[in-house]
Amino acid sequence: MRIKELEIKNFRNYTYAKVNLNERLNVLVGNNAQGKTNLLESIFLLALGKSPRVNKDKDLVMWEKENSIIKLVLEKKAGTTNIEIRLFKAGKKVILINGIPIKKISELLGILNVIYFFPDDLKLIKESPSERRKFMDMDICQASKQYFYLLTRYERILNQRNKLIKTSKDINILKDAISIWDEQLADTASKIILSRIKFINKLAPKVKNCHHYLTGNDENLQLSYVGITGETSLEIKNKLLESYNQTLEKDFDLGYTTIGPHRDDLKITLNNIDLRTFGSQGQQRTASLSLKLAEIETFKYETDETPILLLDDVLSELDNTRQNKLLEIASKLQTVLTCTDFPFDIKCKKFNIQNGKII
Ligand SMILES: Nc1ncnc2c1ncn2[C@@H]1O[C@H](COP(=O)(O)OP(=O)(O)OP(=O)(O)O)[C@@H](O)[C@H]1O
Ligand SMILES: [Mg+2]
Q1: What's the 35 CA to ligand 2 centre distance in angstroms?
Q2: Atom of ligand 1 nearest to the CA of 353
Q3: Ligand 1 centroid – CA 123 distance (Å)
Q4: Which residue owns the Cα nearest ligand 1 atom 19?
Q5: What is the distance between the alpha carbons of residues 170 and 179, in angstroms, rounded to a whole number?
Q6: Quick check: 116 and 291 in contact, CB under 8 A?
């Protein structure tokens, strides 16, 4: 897929901007705080309906303005699609696909596929499991609406179960009352877990290859799912039901559900050593990049389209060899890359970003 044209109005520090993107490498060059990341953020927003940086849509609307419009023209094998998002400081956003407003955000997912790499992505390796769950979930959602529904359903049932645990005074009464929630929760949870395991199994060999390509050495980067696992959703469901029973006392004491996909993790090891705890900064950075680049292949496989790569300020943190290898990959698909300086002799379309203007 390819973004032909991007147009934004009153978005962050842009009063108005329109760009025609090249089908390969696009480079946004500019000093700090000029609006480079803001532009990438607008593309991300059009793909997933939310910002990777902030939770409140109103923060995206230009200060002292009431609303904002962001739109793009996307070309895919099946034809052209227009995506438009209207943000309001005082109300809910409106998303239009080919001019028609959609009812649910899930209708947007999967139309524009992006793989983004922000400097913050080191969090993926370094921080709590929730970052890695987000990584898995966002990716699977982009390829499967069904998965998005499962997540929403899971959250709803989990909240109900937690509410019941919190309000129960007696564990024996709780034991009887909780079984209806357990059945529903285990059913949804098992499907989520199985999707994640399948996703990891597909991604793992590709991550290993990308890591090898970037570093040129034989370090063995491996991924595994941490949680209750199994070969089928029925097997996982039964294991979960058994575990809910075993942990009920603990859950009752703590006041929430302590097992399930909302607590699971993705373990990343390098030569069998846990990267999160023992990896060097450089190893962690390269591993997170390998994870993201491997997604290109899985997307191609899942959707028969090449996703769009968004690279925010990534080059400055890599050594020379890794910079060149990354640019080689970035030149093979539509990429939008930001940097403060681009001294590379490589074919690309350059845009200078100055104070919310594209020059
Ligand atoms: N809602 C908003 N309205 C107006 N300006 C905003 C809004 N949100 C952020 N900004 C401004 O946008 C500017 C540019 O931000 P951006 O993150 O895109 O910079 P950048 O070019 O990526 O810089 P760096 O190289 O430091 O990453 C910041 O100075 C910020 O104050
Ligand atoms: Mg930036």
Answers
A1: 7
A2: 21
A3: 21
A4: 33
A5: 15
A6: no
Say how many Å lie between the CA of residue 32 and the centre of ligand 2.
7
What is the predicted pLDDT for the residue at 22? 96
CA atoms of 289 and 27, how far apart (whole Å): 18
According to CATH, the superfamily of the domain at 1-113+305-359 is P-loop containing nucleotide triphosphate hydrolases (3.40.50.300)
Q: Is the Cβ atom of 49 under 6 angstroms away from ligand 1?
A: no
pLDDT (0 to 100) of residue 243: 97
Q: What is the pLDDT of residues 103-151, one digit of tens each?
A: 999 899 889 999 988 877 778 898 899 999 999 998 888 888 899 999 9
User: CATH for 121-304?
Assistant: 1.20.1050.90
Q: What radius of gyration do the chain's Cα atoms show? A: 22
**What is the rounded CA–CA span in Å between residue 283 and residue 215?**
9
Question: Does the beta carbon of 12 sit less than 6 angstroms from any atom of ligand 1?
Answer: yes
pTM of the complete model: 0.86
Q: Residue holding tokens 């290859």?
A: 209
- Which part of the chain has CATH 3.40.50.300? 1-113+305-359
Low-confidence ranges of the chain (pLDDT < 50): none
63 pocket-lining for ligand 1 (C-beta < 6 Å): yes
Place of tokens 């970035």: 330
Answer yes or no: is the C-beta of 37 below 6 A from any ligand 1 atom: yes
Q: Enumerate the CATH 1.20.1050.90 domain ranges in the chain, comma separated.
A: 121-304
pLDDT in the model for residue 311: 95
